[in-house]
Every structure is written in structure tokens, then in C-alpha cells.
Amino acid sequence: MTHFDSDYNNGAHPLVLQHLVDTNSGHSTSYGYDEWSEHARKMIRKLIGCPEAGIEFLVGGTQTNATVIDSMLYPGDGVIAVDTGHIAVHEAGAVEFTGHKVITLTDHDGKMSALELKEYMQRFKADETSEHMVQPGLVYITFPTELGTLYSAHEIESIYDVCNEFDLHLYIDGARLGYGLMSADCDFNMAWLAHHCHAFYIGGTKVGALCGEAVVFPQGNEPRNFFTSIKRHGAMLAKGRLIGAQFEALFTDNLYLRISKHAIDMAQQLRAIFIEAGYRMYNDSPTNQQFVVLPNKILDQLHEHIKYEFWEPLDHEQMLCRFVTSWATTQEDLDALKTALSTIAKA
Amino acid sequence: MTHFDSDYNNGAHPLVLQHLVDTNSGHSTSYGYDEWSEHARKMIRKLIGCPEAGIEFLVGGTQTNATVIDSMLYPGDGVIAVDTGHIAVHEAGAVEFTGHKVITLTDHDGKMSALELKEYMQRFKADETSEHMVQPGLVYITFPTELGTLYSAHEIESIYDVCNEFDLHLYIDGARLGYGLMSADCDFNMAWLAHHCHAFYIGGTKVGALCGEAVVFPQGNEPRNFFTSIKRHGAMLAKGRLIGAQFEALFTDNLYLRISKHAIDMAQQLRAIFIEAGYRMYNDSPTNQQFVVLPNKILDQLHEHIKYEFWEPLDHEQMLCRFVTSWATTQEDLDALKTALSTIAKA
Amino acid sequence: MTHFDSDYNNGAHPLVLQHLVDTNSGHSTSYGYDEWSEHARKMIRKLIGCPEAGIEFLVGGTQTNATVIDSMLYPGDGVIAVDTGHIAVHEAGAVEFTGHKVITLTDHDGKMSALELKEYMQRFKADETSEHMVQPGLVYITFPTELGTLYSAHEIESIYDVCNEFDLHLYIDGARLGYGLMSADCDFNMAWLAHHCHAFYIGGTKVGALCGEAVVFPQGNEPRNFFTSIKRHGAMLAKGRLIGAQFEALFTDNLYLRISKHAIDMAQQLRAIFIEAGYRMYNDSPTNQQFVVLPNKILDQLHEHIKYEFWEPLDHEQMLCRFVTSWATTQEDLDALKTALSTIAKA
Amino acid sequence: MTHFDSDYNNGAHPLVLQHLVDTNSGHSTSYGYDEWSEHARKMIRKLIGCPEAGIEFLVGGTQTNATVIDSMLYPGDGVIAVDTGHIAVHEAGAVEFTGHKVITLTDHDGKMSALELKEYMQRFKADETSEHMVQPGLVYITFPTELGTLYSAHEIESIYDVCNEFDLHLYIDGARLGYGLMSADCDFNMAWLAHHCHAFYIGGTKVGALCGEAVVFPQGNEPRNFFTSIKRHGAMLAKGRLIGAQFEALFTDNLYLRISKHAIDMAQQLRAIFIEAGYRMYNDSPTNQQFVVLPNKILDQLHEHIKYEFWEPLDHEQMLCRFVTSWATTQEDLDALKTALSTIAKA
């Protein structure tokens, strides 16, 4: 069986795992004060050119989003996201669970429009009844989006400007950050991003780690008592070294970006294979998630050889399907896909 | 100045106030166990033909919605409403504040479509990732809607059937219940309604009381420890008699329905006045809220004589405006409106 | 039956009720922006000598505590109270329900010790693990306390000093504020109090109103977006005039203080009656709540004539009982108590 | 430097780490549905003799407690714990953050008394005002306790009986479960425990894993939609294999119990060393946490060689200190302690 179902269906990248082995003996301070976490923080601060950045390591994405959003907002304030945003759909209501409404704008291939955000805020400010409404306090976007698409530097800058105009925080969910930054379509780097938002996280789980996300407050703007907030959200590891050491490995010799590059290369080949085989790509994703429109009649047959995900039915005859690559994707995997598709074509 | 801005811009209906005066002396048990509250409960149970109904008196609408919804749901489960629903827009996120996502369906002139509700639930059940999503537990509709429109008996029955099929509670917000029931377009009564939902509330604040809403669980299906839940939500009056006595008055000699009928009659006249004056009604509201499309250029002039509410701009030249009647609306008020409109016409 | 069971077992003081009648006709703005609420605010600001004070009218005590505490605290921060504090015992967990731990210190006849508060904070600051603990953000005291006792000006000043030293808000629950201020033992007035705390509320429900509590932020230090917060907590009345008009009446011709004085006079007579009859008073309450130790064997007999409350069993033979006076308590009520006790004595 | 400061200051036990290495390649289903998690569940079900047990792997202790307690309780219900209980002190208010009050009883060397629990519940049921109070729904105890002490089978059975009598869940926090079960003083095994509570968790983080706790609902009594609840609490790992594989290793060849036994043996030797050196043990802990009373004057000197934790000052001259052993504690560590103490003695 060949796996394209997700980028978290595998273990750690071998170099990440090796670093866990290498650092396993020896004692350390707990709760993220260990030497590996401290070193990883320094490496990230240097990379993004933000010597004052507050950086904390949390375990997973939903937890990170809920903890950061709740900590940055006043009680009961709302977060604005697009309707396809992860927090709006697939986090089981974790944000609402801490009392904050997720206000949704219509997505454009997974992305938020700065103009529509501005119009929303203008209408809100002009509305005589806005005192009776949830007060927006933060804008949440994902990079890359849930549909594999990317914002340009100009698009992020425009959203950031609107946020600053209306006193909103801009928080960027980078669960797959590397796959965005290493894409041929991306016109900025991590340092630029750090200077165009109020907080973001560098996803580890989906980019070669066993678990772990690095939350960055670039200007040292960590929310008050953030350590206690992490603890209260159940987001703190006693053995914080587990994540610190993994991020140390990921940021050594550019491993994080190399992993990302590899997955994108594989994804572009995968894309080409589908197109060549005559299938329609749903959008122009330049990242490691590829969305393909498949006829229902081949779904089962393909599943015999290839693991992939049903995204949603498009109509009674076609299914939107997601294929994902990762550090673990190999040329053999692509060959297996090619073979499977040609077998189906012959049948 | 003539007031059509809301149905809560006035005091209590004189008979309601008189009953507060008549019952003021004398001692009573607190927290809703007083004799007047008990009598009002009995009157309502009899009216709806539900001798086992659990009935509690809460203070206001937002509070009632948040308390009932939170008490009927499992932690973190969601409530389905239309996007114009009061809980989705004008309750400052009170439902999310207790941890429950408000899942929105598109409204049709303020109403939910039973078919679209069913399709939503079918998609949810079929979705392989639904475990990662908020679990819907309750459907919230308003009767009349925020746009003054009404569900037919058939429409409510259809929604109720979908709810029962998918194990959802149906809860009906009756902030203006009387104005719906007494409308010429309504094809059922309160007893019928009580048999076609799991909970509803009879709005007092907007129908002649100073404050107070009567929550009804028709089949004795009060949530476990509901008294404590009311207290925890801050929704309990020490002097529960304040609301009990008002509801006793409202349900004596059909006052609740008579108040409602009066306001509807006034509203229909108001509607006719606007139409006759050449203005466009936004929809066919058969209740005490009327939505009129007014050219921007007359807004200020009309405001000099008539108090009404801007609902939302329709375009750069027209404003959707709301005019509301109540027990306190008089024939003189309507005459004043007529005069104001004709003065504007001449100008 | 003679009633000493609570100070909310009655209706409104006749002058309060009369003012509701007098102001009932005529229209007004909603949500507390009406003229009566505005006037009541001005009267209170003048009385306390705080022209900048933010003042809002909420419906009941539990609701007021939960709304104010949640609005003044950062998410997840804790509130310090004594173990007999109302929020710690009889508010059904309303404060915890919004995510804030109630941290309890031992009470001294219902009161908090400034010294023990200081020691608590010193230990907290010195504790190496305090990052893992709830961060205290606010101190809650009641005046008078749940046991009818009073803080001296010196005691409140000491607590206020500790609060300022440790960056804690001081919030005073004045559900029965008048009964404290008018007590012979009280060495300050409302203006002094307003200058020695960050927020307090003037209880209406238990001092002659049908409902309503006036929250005061003396230095204009209303929490950000407090209107929306009130709405989100379900604590807002559409017809805000109901409370505004009552407070206007209460603060006209010193009615609030006159009501309080009357109840205290009645309570001191009641106290004397019990002592003369040979019963032991539990403490030296100088306010309208009196705590009497009664032998179990007379409880039922007394209940035949007098309504009062069991507070808690002291041992197998004695019950601590509470007797409360109010604006509605009469000389006849006291005579009835005297008679009942002498009948029991003869039996 | 020799480390006795905690049992989470180290990496994974080598066999646990090796299993992560061995299972790293190869793909798997996500979110805890992987083969290693499934196998670990089977191993645990067999060990405890509960074939129907629901078992989920969460990341850390605070998270586990908050998720389980919130999921087992009705909204706003309370959890009863002793005042030294971890959820009452060192979890940053995570339980209150989800709306549940932690009701505390006085501890007895870290333990709850079944009799006092029963008396609390009897008083609660008898209290006429209990409707206004938080409704207790669950009892939380730790085994071993925060003070290293153990309940006997009889004591747990007594608490379980009270729970069943009053319709309370019994949930046991086993963050250090192995150190309790392998103690010479323990008169039951894990299977017995599983039959005398409604839920418990087997702590991994403090017993040789890098992270991970296994929550067990012995009778298949998993709370409704528990998967979604875990997700909503941010407690779900995308790569669930990380914990599943570690538990598979811990339950292979009794590793979990062997690790525990080793640490207890070390702890008992450590205890003997202190006693022999003339220091007073604070209590009779038979587990891997030892509490020693040390004079303030030697604290710094000892810290030069030995890392340990200040628990709390006993008076102006003595500090209560905690020393903890783990899988990583060696005979050399004990020798180093002995040497340090004798050096101090000579000084």
C-alpha cells in the first residue's frame, strides 16, 4: 500500500529521531526550560531576525490555536477566519469552547480577502447595534491554507494593514509553514513573515517531527502570564525537551526547509502524473497537498493500491480527493501511483 | 415624537403594572416558588394542554437563550441556527461564551429550511472527519423571526421531524411569540406549538411586561438540576414574584393575546400607510415588525417626527428601516406617521 | 404568619413602586440609556463624590458578581474570597463557570483578614511553582458580610493597601450595603467606600427594590467593552428603565438609607427580644441579619408562628438560625415574635 | 550534579525509546487509530481483566485531568478533591477553566477520608440551600498522592462505596500509578483498581515515557463523543503512534512495573540514607517521592551537589524538601547523596 493520505501518517524524520536518541540521557529542567528548547528558541530568533521574540513549544495544532487565540483575546471577543479555516471546521469547536466566537468570511480558494475583511470591519463599526455583537479581536489565517494555496507577500501585508487599522491581532497558523515557504510561488521568507503578523506558529508535527509546534510572538509580545495560560490549557509538556530537541534538529542545517522542499517536489510530480493521466486538478496548489477530481467509479479500485482522502463529493459522479506528500514520500511511491492509474486506465 | 423604534421602549401594559401594585404587599417565598409564579405556571400548563410541563421564569431573552441552550446540550455540542438568528448576531456571543458553537444555515427571509437542515445533517453524518467537528445537538429557531416572518405549522413540523430523526432538540425562541400566534397568517396555536418542539419560551418583555420570559419544557423534560443551572447563569430573581405576577396578569383574560392582536392591527395599518405613500415593503411580515425600504434623502426628515430603526443599508441610496408596534401604539401614532409622510411628499 | 426569613420575601418599598407607576407611560431609549437610569447615575455620582464614575444597573446579585469579576479579570485568573463568601458558597459556581477559580481564605466571623491576605500573596510570590498555579487577580469581600458583620474603615483600607501592593482589584459586594452604612458601628459613608476600592455594587433587591443592583467603577475604570460584556453575560434588561427608575426612587430623599435604618432598628429590637428571652446570639451583628442559637426542640413550635431560616446545625441539640428584617418589618412583627417566644417559654 | 528534583527531568527509558526507533518507519492511521495504540489498548485490557474497557492515550497529566473531568461531568457540576490534590493546586485552574468548581476536603497526609466525604455529601443533601450550590458530580483522588502516600484497598473501596451511594463518579489520577502498585505497602493490583473506580489513568510521563497518559474507562463507560471531547480539549495527537508505541513498550515484559519497582527501591535507600544521617522524614512515603525536613542552613550547601525541590517552609529554620527517584536513578546517585550529606555533617 502506498500512502498519500496525510503528512502525519508517518514517524519522525530520521534525523529528528536520531537527535531524540542522542539527547535522551542526561537530566534537564522541565516544562520547556531545558537546554535544547532554549537552543531551539535561539536558532529560531536568529533565523527570523527577532532577538526579542517570545517562543514557546506546544504539542499540537488545535491546542496551539486554542491557547494562542484565547490568550491574545479579551474574554468573549471574537476571531475572524474564513469559512474553510481549520478553527472553523475541524477543531471540534475548541475556540468556542473557551468562549470565543469564530466569525467567518467567505474563503477564496481557502484565502481571506483583505478587502472583504476591511468591509466587514467598516460595517461593524458603522452598525448602531454593534455593542450587542461579538467584538472582533483577532484575525486568523493559515499559510498554506487548508486547500494548499498561498498568500502573496502583498496579500498578507494588506491583511496586516487592515488588522493594524482596526486594532486586531493577526495570527498565522503555520501547521504546514515549511511547505508554503519553500514553494516556488512564495515571495517571502520566515523573517519577513515574522515582521508582518503579531503571532504565528511553525508547525512541526506535519513537517517531520513526532509532535510539536513552535509559537512565535515576534516582537516579544507574549500574552501576560503565557506560561500559566499554556498550563491551564493543558498544553504543557513536563518533559519539554521532547519538543525542544526536535525543533533543534529541525533547525539544524536547514532540515525543516529541506524536508519541506522534498515534499513539494514530490507533490509537483504527483500533480503532473494526475494531469498526464487525464484527471482534473481542483486548484493550483503549489504545496504538498494536491486536490484531484476523481470519477466515483475509480475510487475503490484506486484505493486498493493507494491510500488517499475523500475531501467532499462534488456531485453524484465526482469526488474531490486529497493527496498529500511528506518527508517520507519516495520516488517509488510516485511510481506506484503512476502504475495504479495506468492499470485503471486499461481496465 | 412618535415611537416605532421597538416594542421595548415603553413601560408595562397598565393591567400588568396594576397587578404588580395589587400583589406588592404580603410576603412570599423567593426564587420563583411564590404563589403568583405557581399560579402563572398552572395557567400556562392548562393553556398548552401539557399538565406535566416544566416552566421557569427568567429575566430576559439573551439570558434565556444562553441558559436553555447550555442546559439542554452536552458540553461543547453545537446549536444550529440561521445566519440571521438572534443568537448568531445580537447576543454578544452569549452562547459561545458557554462553550457552544453556533452553526449557521442560510436564512430564507429569516427562516430555516427543514430540507436544508436535513441535508446538513446528512452531510455531517456522511463526513469521515465529523468526529473532528462540533457535534450538533440542538436546533434554534425564532417565531416570529427577526424579520417578522412566520413558519407555517407544516414548516415547524418538518423541522421537528428532522430534529427527531437526528436526535436534536428543537428549541423555539418566542421573544415575540404572541405577535406570531395572533397573526392572521398563523395556522396553529400555543398548544399545538408546545407539542411540536422540545422547549420554547413565551416572551414577556416585548409583549407588555417590564421584564420576564417563561421557558416551557412541554413534556416535563426540564434539564437535570435546571434550577441550579439558572442560578449559575445568573438568571434567577430573588424576588421571583416580579415575573410570576406579571405572567399571571398576562395570562388572565387572554391579555397576552389581546396585547399581541392590538399591535398586529396597528402594524398592518402602518404597512398600509407606507404602501399608500408609495414606499416599498421589504417583505410580507404579518407581525408587529414592519420592514420598509426608504430613500436615504428622507431619513433625517422623517426622524424629526418619527423614531424608527435603521436595519441595514441596501445600497448607496436606500436604507432598510424597521418600524415596530406594541401595546402602547395608538391610532394617534399612526396618524402622526401619515402626516409626516405626506409632509415629506409635499416637500 | 410573621416573616423574618429574608429581606427579599416582600415586594418593593411603596415609594419605589409608586415611582414605577409614575414613570410607566411615555417612551424611552432601551438598554439602560433611558432618562431615569441616567438621572440615577448622576445622583449616585454626586453622592459618592466621583463625577467620573462608571455606573451600570444589573438585575441580580449572582449575575452582578459573575459579570463584574469576569470582566475585571484576565482569562483564567482567580478571585480571592473568604470561605463564607457568597461567591464561594451560594452562587452555584457562577464564577467558576466563567473560568475563574475562587481561592478561599479562612473567614473571621465572615470577614477577611488583611494580614492573612498579605501572607497569602507573599507565599504565592515566593513559591517557585506559582507559575503552575492560578494567578490571583481580584479580591472579593462583602459589606456587610454573609454573617451580618462589618469591616471598619481601617480594615477595608488595610485590604485595599494589600490589593494595591500586589496589583489586585478590590471589589466589594454590597448586596446589603445600606444595612452596613447605616449601622451604628459603621465609621465611614458611601463616598469613603467609593474611594477605597476599585469597584462595588449598591444592592437594590434586598433594600427595597423589586430587582436591580448598581455597579460602580468609582474612577471611571469600567472594564473595556463593559456594555457588551453585560450583554454576553445575559445581564442586560431591554427595558433598563425598570431598574433605573427604582434607583432614582431609592436615591431620592435618602430613601435607600432610610429603608436601611428602619431595618436595622427593627433588627436591634429583635436581637434584644431574643436576649431577653434567654437565647444566645451567635455573633454581634450590627446589621439587619441576626443569628440566634436555638435549641432543636423549639424549632417546630416557633415555626408555627414565625418564618425564619435554618443556617446550620451547631451540634445535635442546637441550630444556628437566621432572622432578617427589611423595609417591610413592623412593630407588630416584633410583637408577634415576642409573644411566640413567651408562649414557648411557658410550654 | 546529581538529580533528585523530579521523575520527569530525564528522557525516556531506553527500551521505550528503542521501540520508538523500531516502529518509526512505516505508515499508520492517525489520531490514535494506529496499530501500536490498538495493541497497547489490548495489552492493558487484558492486564486489568476488562475486555470492554475504553482506553484513550492523552499527552500529559493536567490535560488528562481536565479532559476526563469535564467529559464525565454535567456542565457546571463540581469535582471533590482534597486540598493538596493536584487539580486543586498545581494545574493553573484548568478544571475551573472549563466551568467546574473544585470543592476541597481537608487532606490527611495527602489522602481523602471516605467518612469525611460521606459527611460532606450528607450535609449537602440536608442543606435546604443546596440548589443554590455547585452540585458535586465526581470525586478525584490521586494514587499515589502528591505526598507519596497510598490508599489501602479498604480505603479506596470505602470511597467508591460513598461515590456509588451518592451517584458520584470516582476518578483516580495515576500520574505515578506504578510507584503505588509496586510499593511494598500496596495491597491490590491494577486489575483490582480498575474494578473499584469509574475511570483512572496510567501515567506514562513520570514512569519512563517521554509523554503520554492512558485513560481507562474500565466498564466501557467512555463519555459520549469522547474522541471529539479530546479533540476539543486540544488533547489529541495527530501522530497518536507516539504514545501508543510507548505504552506498547511499557506494557511489554512488565516494563512499567519494573521501572516502578526500581525507583521505589532507590527511594527506600534514599530514605535510609537521610534517616541514618540524622534527618527527619516528613511522612512514611512508601513510594518514589520522599519528603525530608532539612535545616535551612544546609540547603545551599546540599544544592551544590544535589538537585532537589523545596516543597514549603515549615518554619523559620526548616524547609520541607522533596527528593524523587525514577528509572534513571542509579546507585551512584545514592552514593553521591550519601557523600554530600557526610561532607555537610563534617563541616
Task: Describe the structure in brief.
The structure is a homotetramer of 347-residue chains. The first copy, chain A, has helices spanning 14-22, 35-48, 61-72, 86-89, 94-97, 114-126, 153-165, 177-181, 190-194, 226-232, 241-250, 255-276, 296-303, 331-346; strands spanning 2-3, 54-58, 78-82, 102-105, 136-142, 169-174, 199-203, 213-217, 280-281, 289-295, 306-307, 309-313, 318-324.
Description:
The structure is a homotetramer. Chain A is α/β, with parallel strands linked by helices. Chain A has helices at about 15-20, 35-50, 60-70, 85-90, 95, 115-125, 155-165, 175-180, 190-195, 225-230, 240-250, 255-275, 295-305, 330-345, and strands at about 1-5, 55-60, 80, 100-105, 135-140, 170-175, 200-205, 215, 280, 290-295, 305, 310-315, 320-325. In chain A, the strands form 3 sheets. Chain A has a 7-stranded mixed sheet, sandwiched between helices. A 4-stranded antiparallel sheet of chain A has the order 9-10-13-12. In chain A, strand 5 (about 135-140), helix 7 and strand 6 form a beta-alpha-beta unit. In chain A, helix 1 (about 15-20) crosses helix 11 (about 240-250), helix 6 packs parallel to helix 7 and helix 12 packs parallel to helix 14 (about 330-345). The longest helix of chain A has 22 residues, at about 255-275. The mean pLDDT of chain A is about 95. The interface between A and D is large, with 53 and 53 residues.
